[in-house]
Specification:
The chain is mainly α. It has helices at residues 2-25, 28-59, 65-91, 99-102, 109-118, 124-144, 151-176, 180-233, 238-277, 282-291, 296-325, 331-347, 366-381, 383-388, 390-405, 413-430, 432-435, 447-451, 456-485, 490-517, 534-546, 551-566, 576-614. The protein folds into 2 domains: 2-195 and 280-325, no CATH class; 359-614, no CATH class. The protein is built from 23 helices and no strands. α7 packs antiparallel against α10 (282-291). The two termini are 40 Å apart.
């Protein structure tokens, strides 16, 4: 045991030494910032413990046991959110002392596994959250007596369960992410899934509120209709009308408050039921039972979480054993992969799907088609493009929530018509990072374009067409979701489709110019770029500031349509927005082709400088 402790301390010291040396290589200022941040985190942990102990001792005597359980449950959810984002951050970093490196040291396999596990406890998330948790546990003992000592094993078992399951998950993901491209794809997929799941409660709440709101409106409207019927019949006096209107308003307000209280009560019942069966809420359930003097539920919850932690660590140890033996993948899977190509050749079967690189695009030359398909294939395989699609997905979820929750009647129709094109512009802005640095993501592959005997205008056209499916599909998804969520006409939907094409062409022109004048080298598999020069930074910043001016020609058709119909100059039945875009689209297309000639000559002059920038090694 003493030997294991000495090895653990040595590994932690070596890890910290490597971290400090890494920051020192990046400059003295970075080292000072690291030390300052570490000291601040340490002081913050002590302040968190003291504050939670002091405030908890006072507040626990002022609140009900149910409120304590709700607070612990909410704190657990917040902790898990912070913990998940911390795990995602760690997965994107390269560990200087990975498990493979530790296996080369003169230590037993069990010692390597335990050191690798307990090292995960030395994280910023635990350093900032565990001291306040301990302080609150001590405060419960002070407030309610010795029965609440069960809070200590509950907290320990909860942390062991979270860290054990996380260790198992990280080991499983590490096997999947042996391929670097697949690693970044997995990270992007995890982020997308987390974002979508985070929007699910909002959509369910909106659907529930919609049902409640519609029921209240029906009851209130029915009583108003009865009152208006009495007024028309002359059976009530004006004074009685005012009194009954006031009574209806008070009754409606009372009903809203009653339903709000009932909703909170229902949520509380759901939390209580969930706390009994969901392992991550067993800590709250055990503490709630201990406050009532029942220790058995707390003991059972602690044993349950200890059991989950033990099973997760045992399964993780099996994975460590596989790494030690060099059997990442089963021999069966390896033989299947080896025999698959031979089986296809022997059977003489043709592949079901035609390769993308063999496609033929209409109205495009062979050169432009090759550049388009090659660039599109690269974008589809790159995790960067997947990450950039997260923001539009959030917008789609918001629109779905609006569809479920219902649209307020007091919003003017003109606002409805503006929202779909606004969503399209938002989608384009989320992809601007790729559009205005198109060659940066090619990295060393840009030399292919430099050496190729092709017109540089075709290179730009192919790069734009490669981005078009991603941007236009996102625009179409947002426009469709907004069209369903808000009551706009069919003509507006088709007009918004043409608006997406117009907006894309207008955004491509400055995007191409910035890609040529201010390219930035990108880190492999990341959205982070190398340190750009001051001039490059200024050009990129000014471009972002000037992009909103592109909205003027895009918004003109819809603005003209709304104004003319608002002042009743034209009939509401005339689809002026659609007709104006039919005229604007070919004009913008001609402008795009004309400007692309000049941009092609500019690319030919600066291509060597671009290659020098984007092909440099970025750590």
């Amino acid at each position: 045991m003493i030997r294991f402790f000495e090895q653990f301390v040595t590994v932690i010291w070596l890890r910290q030494k490597l971290l400090i040396n890494s920051w020192r290589r990046h400059g003295l200022l970075n080292l000072i910032l690291l030390l300052s941040f570490s000291i601040t985190a340490l002081i913050g942990s002590m302040i968190g413990f003291t504050a939670s102990l002091t405030l908890g001792s006072f507040l626990f005597q002022q609140v009900t046991p149910d409120q304590i359980m709700y607070g612990i449950t909410a704190g657990t959810v917040i902790f898990l959110v912070i913990w998940i984002f911390g795990v995602l951050t760690d997965l994107q970093q390269t560990e200087s002392l990975s498990l493979e490196n530790l296996l080369h040291l003169p230590m037993s396999l069990t010692g390597v596994f335990l050191i690798n596990y307990f090292r995960s406890w030395l994280s910023l998330t635990l350093a900032m959250t565990v001291p306040p948790m301990v302080g609150l546990s001590v405060a419960m003992v002070i407030a309610y007596g010795w029965e609440l000592l069960i809070a200590m094993p509950l907290l320990l078992s909860f942390l062991l369960m979270i860290t054990g399951v996380t260790h198992l998950f990280r080991g499983w993901v590490a096997e999947l992410m042996a391929n670097k491209r697949r690693k970044n794809t997995i990270l992007a997929s995890i982020v997308i899934v987390i974002v979508l799941l985070s929007q699910l409660p909002m959509m369910l709440q909106m659907a529930f509120m919609r049902n409640q709101r519609s029921q209240n409106q029906n009851i209130y409207q029915q009583e108003l209709d009865n009152l208006y019927a009495k007024i028309n019949a002359g059976t009530v006096s004006p004074q009685d009308v005012q009194e009954q209107m006031n009574e209806l308003s008070e009754k409606a307000g009372f009903e809203r408050r009653r339903q709000s209280d009932q909703q909170l009560k229902d949520i509380g019942n759901v939390v209580k039921t969930t706390a009994r069966w969901l392992p991550i809420t067993w800590q709250a359930h055990g503490i709630r039972a201990a406050i009532d003097g029942r220790l058995l539920p707390g003991v059972l919850c602690s044993l349950g979480m200890f059991t989950i932690a033990a099973l997760a660590l045992w399964r993780s140890y099996i994975g460590t054993l596989r790494i030690y033996r060099g059997t990442y993948t089963s021999a069966k899977a390896i033989s299947q992969r080896a025999e698959a190509p031979a089986a296809e050749v022997s059977n003489g079967k043709k592949p079901k799907w035609k390769s993308m690189m063999t496609w033929e695009l209409p109205f495009l030359s062979e050169t432009t088609t090759t550049i388009t398909l090659g660039s599109l294939r690269s974008l589809l395989r790159a995790p960067e493009s997947k990450v950039l699609l997260i923001s539009p997905l959030i917008f789609v979820c918001i629109f779905v929530g609006i569809i479920l929750g219902g649209v307020p009647d007091e919003i003017p129709e003109q606002v409805y018509r503006v929202i779909p094109p606004a969503g399209c512009v938002f989608a384009l802005f989320t992809m601007m990072q790729i559009l205005q640095n198109q060659f940066g993501y090619d990295r060393a592959g840009f030399r292919v374009f430099v050496l190729a005997p092709v017109d540089r205008r075709d290179v730009l056209l192919g790069k734009n067409l490669a981005i078009a499916p991603l941007m236009l599909t996102t625009c179409l998804a947002l426009s469709t979701a907004a069209t369903i969520a808000f009551p706009v006409g069919v003509w507006d939907f088709f007009a918004n489709v043409m608006f997406s094409v117009v907006a894309f062409l207008l955004f491509c022109l400055p995007g191409n110019a910035i890609s040529i004048l201010a390219p930035i080298a990108m880190k492999p598999g990341s959205l982070a770029g190398a340190n750009p020069s001051f001039i490059t930074f200024v050009i990129q910043f000014v471009a972002y500031m000037l992009f909103p001016f592109l909205l003027l020609p895009m918004a003109a058709p819809l603005a003209v349509d709304i104004l003319l119909k608002e002042f009743e100059i034209i009939s509401e039945s005339i689809p002026l927005y659609f007709l104006l875009l039919i005229v604007e689209l070919p004009l913008i297309a001609l402008l795009y082709l004309w400007v692309m000639k000049a941009l092609g000559h500019l690319l030919e002059k600066r291509e060597l400088r671009i290659l020098e920038i984007v092909a440099q090694k970025v750590e």
